[in-house]
Amino acid sequence: MAQPRCACGQPKSYRTAQCWTCYNAGRRGPSYQCLGCGAAFWRFHSPTKRDARRYCSRACFFAMKKTRAAENQRVIQARKQSESVESEIHRALRQEAQRTLLALRLCAECGGPLSRLSPGGRFCRRCVAYRIATAISRGRRASREVGPEHLCPNCGQTFRGHVQDVYCSLHCAKQYKARHDRCGDTYPTLSHMPLDERNQIAELIALTRAAYRKIDQVRKSGISEIESEVSR
Q: Does some domain include residue 186?
């Protein structure tokens, strides 16, 4: 008796309708196409994981990951280069706009180009410094004319000036400090006192310093007379 054959032409068993190849092909269902190499492959059908395997092997999957990483790196590099070029263009445009603005802005005092970038500036640095110095000197002269009266603790003379002034001149201030450092006079700090108290204490200090100077003069004159007599 001849052996029965399947519809595909291959031999099969008497009790089966298909050969093993056709039977397994029917159980596996349709084949899928690999997204990496395009080859057809079979996978188990899962209703919960519809896209469980989209590649025929791990080699195709990791090749895809490597290719995608290289593409992402190229995209990132291209974006960085584009941003760098755009920032350079914006920086050059800002610098050119600043140079143009400085060329159009002139000092209201001397007519020279402004070097300051502050908004609303009308004068250059040199003119600003000159105006500040002039205002300070004018204020000093006005305080010397109409300011409150002070009494210098070094020389005892009265003078007019700002409320916070203590000495009549820079020479008196240096002499007072030199005397304090040399002799160790413990005089109080006058700059933080009210004007009336400051003048009263300054008067006492001036009298004391005048007495010390007189004593020093008498002592020096006595020493000079003794030295002259000894030399005779």
A: yes
Q: Using CA of residue 120, residue 126, residue 104, residue 87, what is the dihedral sign?
A: negative
Q: How many domains does the chain have?
A: 1
pTM reported for the whole predicted model? 0.35
Q: Is residue 67 in a domain?
A: no
pLDDT tens per residue across span 39-91: 877 676 555 555 557 888 888 888 889 999 999 999 999 999 989 999 999 99
Tell me the residue range of the domain where 202 lies: 148-223
Flag whether 160 is in a domain. yes
Residue 28 lies in a domain: no
List Cα–Cα distances, 5 to 12, 20, 23, 112, in angstroms: 5, 11, 13, 109
At residue 12 the predicted structure's pLDDT band, cuts being 50, 70 and 90, is: confident
- Name the one residue in this structure whose structure tokens are 């092909």: 25
Place of tokens 């030199």: 178
Burial class (CB in 10 A: 0-12, 13-18, 19+), 159: middle
